[in-house]
Design a protein that fits this description.
CATH architecture of chain B: Orthogonal Bundle
Shape of chain B: globular
Protein name (chain A): Ferredoxin--NAD(P)(+) reductase (Naphthalene dioxygenase ferredoxin-specific)
InterPro entries (chain A): 2Fe-2S_ferredoxin-like_sf, 2Fe-2S_ferredoxin-type, Beta-grasp_dom_sf, Cbr1-like_FAD-bd_dom, FAD-bd_FR_type, Flavoprot_Pyr_Nucl_cyt_Rdtase, FNR_nucleotide-bd, MRET
CATH topology of chain B: Globin-like
CATH class of chain B: Mainly Alpha
Radius of gyration of chain A: 21 Å
CATH superfamily of the largest domain in chain A: Nucleotide-binding domain of ferredoxin-NADP reductase (FNR) module
Strand content of chain A: 25-35%
Number of strands of chain B: 0
Cofactor (chain A): [2Fe-2S] cluster
Strand order of the largest sheet of chain A: 9-8-11-6-7-10
Number of domains of chain A: 3
Structural class of chain A: alpha/beta
CATH topology of the largest domain in chain A: Rossmann fold
Radius of gyration of chain B: 14 Å
CATH superfamily of chain B: Globins
Largest sheet of chain B: none
Oligomer: heterodimer
Largest sheet of chain A: 6 strands, antiparallel
Helix content of chain A: 10-25%
Keywords (chain A): Dioxygenase, Oxidoreductase
CATH class of the largest domain in chain A: Alpha Beta
Number of helices of chain A: 7
Shape of chain A: globular
Helix content of chain B: 55-70%
Order of helices and strands of chain B: HHHHHHH
Pfam families (chain A): FAD_binding_6, Fer2, NAD_binding_1
Order of helices and strands of chain A: EEHEHEEEEEEEHEEHEHEEHEHE
Strand content of chain B: under 5%
Chain lengths: 322, 122
C-alpha cells in the first residue's frame, strides 16, 4: 500500500489498484476516459519519477517532467501528484526591461531574487492584480541572473498585452506562474537535424530552444525559419544572422508572406519555404510555434515528409477571447 | 500455449512502427483523408495505436459498441464500404512494407475485417 498526496491531503492506493481507480474511489475530481492508456485524458504530474509503464506512449519531454497516466500506474513508492487544474504557485518578479523589439512587440525582462527553474521553450502565466492571467513563452535559457525574457505582441483589442505595453514599467512587480509546456530541447541525438519554424512571437520559444541546443553542443544542422506578413513584424533579424555567421551548423531564414519582400528575405509562407528548402526531413526533430493554423498544418506536413510523430513538438499560440 | 499474434508480430514496438507508416498512407489517400481533416494528430495517432493493438490481437477492451460510437459521426458524413476497403488496403500494405509474414498479415486483416459492420454502423 502506498500513499498518494494531493494538495496536502493523503489517500491510500490499495495493492493491485491503479492510481486513477484509487483517486476515483476517493471522489477526487479527475478527468479520464478510456482507462487503457490511449486517450491521455487523465495525464497528471508527479514529484517523484513514476513507474516506466505509466509513461508509455508519452512524449519524451513529458516523461522528463514526470508526467504519467494514472490509469496505467501501479505505484512503486509513495507519490505526490499534481492535478492539471490545481492552482498554480505564483512568484513575484521585478520588471528590469520593457523596450520595443518592433512596431508591436516588446521585450519584457523579469528578474527574480532566487533561481527560477525552467526549460527553454516552456511558457508561464503572467498575472495582473485583478487575477486575469495570460500565457507567454520564455525566450531565454536559464541564467545566472535569474531573469526571464518575453516577447509580447500587442493584440488588437488585447487588454492584457496593452497593459504590459503601456502600463508596466521597469521596477514594477509582476506575478509569474511555474513554467509549463513540453515543447523544449532534450540533449540527446545531438547529430539530429533540428527544424524550427515560427510565426510572429513564435520566435520567443524557438530562440530559447535554439540557444539551449547550441549551448548543449548540438552538432546536427539547425534551421530556423521565422515568418510574418510584413517586415515590420519580424524582429531580431540581425542577431539571428550574426548567430548564423558564428555557428556553421545554424541556418536562419526570415520569410515574408506579404507583397513587399526586400532582398535577403524569402517570399512566401514560412512553412512552405521551410518544406521546399528541406525536402527530406526523415529522422529530424521539429519545433513549431506561433499561429495555430500554421502549426497544425505544418505538423501534418512534416509528418508526411518522414518526421516521426514523437519528434514533432508544437506550441500553438491560442488567443484568449476577451 | 503458442505465442499470440500480438507477440509473434512484435508487440508494442511493432504497433508503434506500423502506426507511423499506416497513418502517412491514410493522410495521403485522397479517398479518405477528408475524414481526418479536423482531427488532432497526436490524439489520432494514439487511437491508431489502440486500433493496431486490437488488429494484432493484443490487450484491448474494444467493444463493438465503442467502434459504432466512435464512427457514427463519420457514417453520417458519408463513410462507406469503399472507405473501409481503402483502410484495409493500407493496413495490408503497411504490414507488407514492414516485412510481416503473409500468414500473420492475414490474421491481422481478419481481425480488422471483423469490425466492418460496427464501423459502418450496419
Amino acid at each position: 500500500m502506498y500513499t498518494l498526496t494531493i494538495d496536502e491531503s493523503n489517500y491510500t492506493c490499495q495493492p493491485g489498484e491503479t492510481v486513477l481507480d484509487a483517486l476515483l474511489r476517493e471522489n477526487i475530481n479527475i478527468s479520464y476516459a478510456c482507462k487503457k492508456g490511449t486517450c491521455h485524458s487523465c495525464m497528471v504530474r508527479s514529484t517523484e519519477v513514476p513507474p516506466q509503464s505509466a509513461q508509455a506512449g508519452l512524449k519524451k519531454t513529458l516523461q522528463t517532467l514526470n508526467y504519467f497516466l494514472p490509469c496505467q500506474c501501479y505505484p512503486e513508492q509513495d507519490m505526490t501528484i499534481k492535478l492539471p487544474d490545481q492552482s498554480d504557485f505564483y512568484r513575484m518578479g521585478t520588471v528590469i526591461d520593457n523596450t520595443l523589439l518592433n512596431r508591436n512587440t516588446i521585450l519584457l525582462v523579469i528578474a527574480f531574487a532566487d533561481a527560477f527553474e525552467f526549460k527553454a521553450g516552456q511558457f508561464v502565466n503572467l498575472q495582473k492584480s485583478d487575477g486575469v492571467t495570460r500565457s507567454y513563452s520564455i525566450a531565454n535559457i536559464p541564467q545566472q541572473s535569474n531573469t526571464l525574457e518575453f516577447h509580447i505582441r500587442r493584440l488588437p483589442d488585447g487588454k492584457f498585452s496593452a497593459w504590459l505595453h503601456d502600463e508596466v514599467s521597469v521596477g514594477d512587480s509582476i506575478a509569474v506562474s511555474e513554467p509549463r509546456g513540453h515543447c523544449f530541447y532534450l540533449p540527446e541525438r545531438r547529430e539530429q537535424g533540428l527544424l524550427l519554424v515560427g510565426t510572429g512571437t513564435g520566435l520567443a520559444p524557438l530562440a530559447g530552444i535554439l540557444t539551449d541546443a547550441l549551448a548543449q553542443g548540438h552538432t546536427g544542422p539547425i534551421h530556423l525559419f521565422h515568418g510574418s506578413r510584413d517586415i515590420e513584424d519580424l524582429y531580431r533579424i540581425d542577431e539571428m544572422r550574426q548567430l548564423a555567421a558564428q555557428h556553421p551548423n545554424f541556418h536562419y531564414t526570415s520569410c515574408l508572406s506579404g507583397k513587399n519582400v526586400p532582398e535577403g528575405f524569402a517570399a512566401g509562407r514560412v512553412n512552405e519555404i521551410a518544406l521546399s528548402l528541406l525536402p527530406d526531413l526523415k529522422s529530424w526533430r521539429v519545433f513549431l510555434c506561433g499561429h495555430p493554423d500554421m502549426v497544425n498544418q505544418m505538423k501534418k506536413q512534416v509528418f508526411l515528409k518522414g518526421v516521426a510523430s514523437a519528434d514533432i513538438y508544437a506550441d500553438a499560440f491560442l488567443i484568449t477571447p476577451r | 500455449m503458442s505465442a499470440t499474434l500480438y507477440e509473434r508480430i512484435g508487440g508494442e514496438a511493432a504497433v508503434n512502427a506500423a502506426v507511423e507508416v499506416f497513418y502517412r498512407k491514410v493522410l495521403e489517400d485522397y479517398r479518405i483523408n477528408r475524414f481526418f481533416d479536423n482531427t488532432d494528430m497526436d490524439k489520432q495517432i494514439a487511437k491508431q495505436k489502440a486500433f493496431f493493438t486490437m488488429a494484432f490481437g493484443g490487450p484491448n477492451n474494444y467493444t463493438g459498441q465503442d467502434m459504432r460510437n466512435a464512427h457514427s459521426r463519420l457514417v453520417k458524413s458519408g463513410l462507406n464500404e469503399e472507405h473501409f476497403n481503402a483502410v484495409m488496403e493500407h493496413l495490408g500494405a503497411t504490414l507488407t512494407e514492414l516485412n510481416v509474414p503473409a500468414n500473420l498479415i492475414a490474421e491481422a486483416a481478419a481481425i480488422a475485417e471483423s469490425t466492418r459492420k460496427d464501423v459502418l454502423g450496419q
